[in-house]
Amino acid sequence: MTNKLYKVFEDVEQNAQLLSKYWHNFSTEISEHLPDTYHAELQELSEKLEIAIDNLIDELRNPTLTLATTGTTSSGKSTLVNLLCGAEIVPVAVSEMSAGAVTIEYSETKSLIIHETPGALWECGEWAGISDERIYQRLYDVMISYIDNREKQANLACPQSTISYPFRLIKESKLELPRGVKVRIMDLPGLAYVGDEGNANVIKQCREALCLVTYNSAETDKEKVRSLLQEVVEQVKDLGGSPARMLFILNRIDVFRADRNWPETETRFVEDAICKIKYELSEQLKEYTEEINTLQVIKLSTWAALLALQIKNNDEIYSAEASKKARNNFLGLIDENILEDLPFKTERWSRNDRNSVAEALWEKSYAEDFQQSLREHISQHFPRLVIPQAIERFNVAAGNAITEWALQTTTAILNSSEERYQEECEKISQVRLSLKRLLEISNISLKKPFEEVSAKIKQVIAKKSEDDLISHLKKKLEEFHNVEPYNELGDKLSPFFLWEFEFKKGINQVLDTVAKSLETGRVDLDTPNLKKANAANVNLLARNLNRLVNLGYTNSVAKEGKAMEARTEEEKNKLKELNEELNELPIHLNIIIEDVIKQISTQELNRIYDAVSELLRCHLSYIQKKANDIAPNIAIKFPDSQLNKVDNKLTFSFQFKTEFAITQGIWQEEIKVETRKRVWYKLWLGKKTIYQTKYEKRSSDNAKLPSTEDLLMGWIIQAREKEPERVNQVAGWILQQIDYLKQNVDKIQNNIIDRYQERLDKANQEITTDYEERKKVWQPMKQKAKNLTEEFYELERF
C-alpha cells in the first residue's frame, strides 16, 4: 500500500467527520422550508448521527490487531512467538501442544494469568510484576502437567493463559499503526486441543486475526512431509475464513546452509514447498482458489533471529548465553571473516564481536525480510478486518436512516399536491407489487437447486433412484453458475458438496491407520486425523490394538481372516479374549471416530456457513440493486449484518455398530481304546494288544475371525447408508436459511415503503404551497438529498 497504515484509518475518520458537516448543512437548509412538525425528527436524526460517528471514530482509533500463530509439528512456532515478543517467555514446544492457548497483550507492565479450565491440575491465578524467567517457568510447569495428564484424564481442557507484556513487535518493528490500537499475539495449539468450553471464543478471535502459519522446512522424510502438508491444511481450516489473511512461514530454513550446493538447494526447496502448499490448499479449499494462488510464503530461521536479539541484550550473562548457543548451532550463518577474528570461548567475545555475530545472524536468518513482509501483510489486511465492519455498524445506527429520510422526504414533498399525491399512492402500490414479484422470482431462482436436490433425496430414500446425491448436488450448483447473479460466485459454493467427502476421508484415514497397525503388528496412531481425537481415547485404542496383536490378530490373520475352532480350554480362553478385544475395538473406534467427525464437522460447518453467507450476500446485493432500479427515490437498503445471519445451527451425528460373535459347535473327537484279542498265528492261544478307534461328540467354540477389511468395511457401509439423511439435512437447512432471509427482507422492504407512504401522507397534509412554488425549492433540495446520499454511500464503498 502507498498509504501508511495509520493514514488509511485517518482518511476514513476524516470522511466520516465530513458526513456530519454535510448533514448539518443539508438539515439546516431543509429545516428552513419545513413546518415545525418536522424539526423533532431532524433533531433525532442529527443526534443519532453524532453518536454513530463518535462510535465509528472510537472504533477507528482503538481497533484490535490480533496475530494468531500456529504451525506444523516441530516448526518453531513458539520460537516465532518469542521472536515477536523479543524475549523467551513462551516455552519452546516439548510436543505439538506447546503451552496451550496463550494470549499475549501489549502492555508496558508485565503480568501473567493462568485461567481456570475444566479439570485443571496446575496452579491457576494471576501474577503481577512477574519476570520473564518466571513467566517461562510457570507456563512450562503448566505445559508439562497437561502433557503428563491429558492421556489419563479425558475431560482435561487445554490450558489457557494471558500475558501482559511490552513486546518487541510494537516497540521496535516500525509498524505504523493507528493511534490507540490494541495489539495481541495468540499462540495456538491446534484448535482441536482447546476444548469445547474455550473453543468458540478462540475460533471467534481467530476469525478476527491475521494468522502466521509456520512450516517445518527441516523435515525430509516423504511420509512426514505429506503429513506436514495435511497439518497445514487442517490449521487453515481451523483458523477459518480466507487463507489470504494468513502469512505462511518456511521456518528452520537455515538447514540448507550446510548443503554443498546452497543456495540452489534452498531455492529448489522453497519453490517446491510453495507449490505443494498451494496445491494442497486449493485441492481442499476450492472456494478460495483465487486467494490461494496469490498466497504470501516467506523464509525464516526463527531461533537464529531470536538469538540475534538476545546477543544484543544489555544483560551480559543473557548475551553470553545466547552467544554460546549461536556458536554451537549457527556457525553456518556467521561470515568466515567474522569467525576468523572470534576467540573460541564466547565469554571472551567483546561487545563489538557480539554485535557483528548478531547482525550476521539477523541478516542470514531472513529476519529483516520477515519483518518487512509482516508489515506489508498487516498494512494490506488489517484495515479489511476492521473498517468495513465498523462502517456497516455506522450505517445501521444512523447512515441508512439519514439517506432514506433525505430522499424520501424531498420526493414526498414534490409529490404532495392532491393530484400528484394520488398518482404517487398508485405508484407505491405498483412498486409494492413489482418488489414482491422481484423477491418471489429471485427467491425461486435461489431455492431451485436445493429443492431439486430435496426431491432427488426423496426418490433415493424411496428406492426409486440410485443417483449419487452428492454428485447430483454438485451438478445442480454447477448449473447455478449460469444464473444471474450467482454466476459471480465461482467455486465459493463448493463447501455445500465437499463436506461429505471430508467426512468419508476422515473415517477412511482412521480405519486405514487401524488396519495398517493390525496387519503390520506395529501400532502407530500418529496421524493428522487421529490428532483430532482426545489423546486419552487414542491411548485406549492403542492398548486395545496391541492386545489384539499379542493375541495373534495380525499379519495374515488380520489381512485374510481365519476360521477358528477352539477345542481345548486354553484355546477357548484365547478365543474368548479375542472375542472380548474384537468387541471392544468398535467401542473405542466409535469414540475416536466421533471425536474426529466432531472436529471435521466444526471445520466443514464453518465452511458451509461461509458459503451460505457468500450466497446470501450475493443475493442481497442483487435484489437491493434491482429494488432501487424499481424505486430509485425510496433508498432501499438491506443491511448485511442484520440480514445475512445463520439462523439455527446445522449438526451432524454418526453412530456405528459392529460386533464379533462366538458360536457353539459340535465336533467328533477321535479316541483310541485299548483291547486284548486272540490272534490266529498264536493258534488262538495267545493275545495281542490292539487299539480300536471310537468317536465321541464334543462341544467347541467356533468363530470366523474377520479380516481387517471385513471388520472395518461395515463402518464405511454404515456411513454411506446415512448419506441421504445428511444431504437432506444440508439441503433442508439451506432452504430454511433462504426462507428466513426472505421473511426478513420482506419485512424490511415493507417497512421502508410504509415509511415513505407515511412521509407522503404527512407532506400532503402539511405542505400548503402551490406546486410551481414547491418545484423551485424542492427540486434543488432533492438533488442535494441525492448528493448527500452519494456521500454516505462513498464511505461504504471503502
What labels would you give this structure?
nine-stranded mixed beta sheet; 24 helices; 798 residues; three-stranded antiparallel beta sheet; alpha/beta
Written description of the protein model:
The structure is a single chain. This protein is of the alpha/beta class and 798 residues long. Helices cover 60% and strands 11% of the residues. The strands form two sheets. Strands 4-3-5-2-6-1-7-8-9 form a nine-stranded mixed sheet, sandwiched between helices. Strands 10-12-11 form a three-stranded antiparallel sheet. A hairpin with an 8-residue loop joins strand 11 and strand 12. Helix 15 runs antiparallel to helix 16. The longest helix is centred in the C-terminal third of the chain and has 62 residues. About 4% of the residues have low confidence.
